[in-house]
Write a structure and sequence with these properties.
The protein is mostly helical and about 180 residues long. It has two domains: about 90 residues, RNA polymerase sigma factor, region 2, helix turn helix motif (Rna Polymerase Sigma Factor, Chain: A, Orthogonal Bundle), CATH 1.10.1740; about 90 residues, Winged helix-like DNA-binding domain superfamily/Winged helix DNA-binding domain (Arc Repressor Mutant, subunit A, Orthogonal Bundle), CATH 1.10.10.10. α1 crosses α2 and α7 crosses α8. The N and C termini lie far apart (about 45 Å).
Length: about 180
Amino acid sequence: MAELAGRIRSSDPDAYADAYNQLKGPLIRYIQRFISDTSASYDVLQDVFLKLWEQRSSMRDDTNLKALLYTMARNRSLNVIRKESRQADIDTDVLFELTHSDDSIDANLEHKVLREHVTEWLGKLPPRRAEAFMLSRFHDLKYSEVASIMKLSERTVQTHVLHALRDLRAKLSAFRQEQ
């Protein structure tokens, strides 16, 4: 990624296209955590990459491109939310990618119910804790990248993720005992 950032800084359109192709999927899923409207999410994604290109000459040599794009996506998404004064829905399809086509109907139903509960539980976590957890676990970002995106220390991010895991495990344990 560092090499890609340097090439973008040098106005290489192929590097820009490579960055877009590599990160558009994870970024759009991240944006959709804030903005449930698909069209608006893609508008934010477009704005982020346009801003990246427009500001490419001001990028430093040590720029973490992934963290920069996630930060830009987060900030732009929050601006859209503020402007529209509405809350984002959690995209449950990202939480669990169920690819077992030969699962029984009961297993699929059980996965669906569990996915709905996890979505509900994530929605009840404090917002910063939920965001740190989702960035770390569902977007495979390092604590340092999450810290950069959220403007927190790595230790705070780690604490948020650990508390989220503790909370979700407790909810899951209680849920399984009820079954």
